[in-house]
Amino acid sequence: MTALDARMAHSQPKPDNKVPEVDAGFWLIKLMAVTMGETAADYLNVNLGLGLTNTSLMMTAILLGTLALQFSRSRYVPWTYWLNVVLVSVVGTLLTDNLVDNLGVSLVTCTLAFSGALAACFALWWSEERTLSIHDVDTPVREAFYWVAVLLTFALGTAAGDLVAEHFALGYLASGILFASVIISLALGYFLLGLNAILAFWLVYILTRPLGASFGDLLSQPVDYGGLGFGTVATSLGFLGVIAATVTAMTLHPRR
């Protein structure tokens, strides 16, 4: 590269990051999205009677359409990004449910398989881009790796959460408290003990899925099954309202 080429490359503006900054609003919406993903999947599958297969096909088709919209953007747009997070949450939940309920794969096997798939995704992402930072998701390749990783974290979180809550019979509330405690420990490790930021982020990203699902089930499931009996409709609409309000605030008052 000549000196002129170097100066021209340096003068070109850096592409905008396609994902939001990580702050309190980010984790609030993420937690609401995963909770809604759990209850919405149950509502479509059971309450509307669509069945697991039909629900999975329908939601996957919708997700592919919204991801195409997300990739067409040149910068982070709150409503587009978070719409995809909600839909990925639903599809990730259904992915695990299909393996367990339709194909008879055990929750232990699903947890191990998705852990391996996520590790492989990160390894390939690193080998291609030499970064796993969410502050530099500014090319189509990096964005593709990002969304694959997000999908796998939801599927893994679903499997791990169901494994703890159902297979080990801890129940919804105890499971939620367990995952919340682990997340708090990771946060303390990051803020006080120098835990690697990328490692801390992705571990918490995985664990917010079973945390949200545990409290979503606690609110929506009947009292006879250990829940509070609010139902999937009321629970989903409540969390959707929180998501919409927070995304609207982010759109009107952007903070980069």
Keywords:
256 residues, mainly alpha, 9 helices
Give the overall shape, derived from the CA principal axes: globular
Largest beta-sheet characterization:
none
Number of helices: 9
**Percent helix range:** over 70%
Report the span from N to C terminus.
33 Å
Gyration radius, to the nearest Å?
19 Å
Count of folded domains: 1
Low-confidence stretches: 4-11
Counting helices, strands and paired strands, the structural category is mainly alpha
Percentage of residues in DSSP E strands: under 5%
| Total beta-strand segments | 0
Order of helices and strands: HHHHHHHHH
Mean pLDDT across residues? 85
Keywords: Membrane, Transmembrane, Transmembrane helix
Organism: Salipiger aestuarii
InterPro entries: DUF347 (IPR007136)
Protein name: Putative membrane-anchored protein
What's the short version?
This protein is an all-alpha fold. It is built from nine helices and no strands.
Structure explained in plain terms:
- The protein is mainly alpha-helical and 256 residues long.
- The protein has one domain.
- 77% of the residues lie in helices and 0% in strands.
- The protein has nine helices and no strands.
- Helix 2 (24-47) crosses helix 4, helix 4 (78-102) crosses helix 6 and helix 7 (172-193) runs antiparallel to helix 8.
- Keywords: Membrane, Transmembrane, Transmembrane helix.
- This is Putative membrane-anchored protein.
- The chain crosses the membrane at residues 56-73, 79-96, 103-125, 145-165, 177-205, 225-252.
- InterPro entries: DUF347.
